[in-house]
Design goal:
The chain is mainly β. The chain has one domain: RNA polymerase II/Efflux pump adaptor protein, barrel-sandwich hybrid domain (OB fold (Dihydrolipoamide Acetyltransferase, E2P)). It is built from one helix and four strands. A four-stranded antiparallel β-sheet has the order 3-2-1-4. It is globular and about 35 Å long. It holds the Pfam family TOBE. Keywords: Molybdenum. One of its GO terms (biological process) is molybdate ion transport.
């Protein structure tokens, strides 16, 4: 796989929660970092995502917001 996005992080799928049309997929990147993504149920099926499988979190954003308390 080749992709232009530079922010890609390999991890393990720890949860796949399907809704009516959209699923929430949680990927453990290690060191206590977990990324949650909302993707279609169709994408979950096509990628064969399941708890324990390897996956990449690919982040492509034009803006990054920073906040503090």
């Amino acid at each position: 796989m080749k992709i232009s996005a530079r922010n890609r992080f390999k991890g393990k799928v720890v949860e796949v929660k399907k809704g009516a049309t959209t699923a929430h997929v949680r990927i453990d990147l290690g060191n206590g970092l977990i990324v949650t993504s909302s993707i279609t149920n169709e994408a979950v099926d096509e990628l064969e995502l399941a708890v324990g499988s390897d996956a990449y979190a690919v982040i492509k954003a034009s803006d990054v917001m920073v906040a503090v308390d």
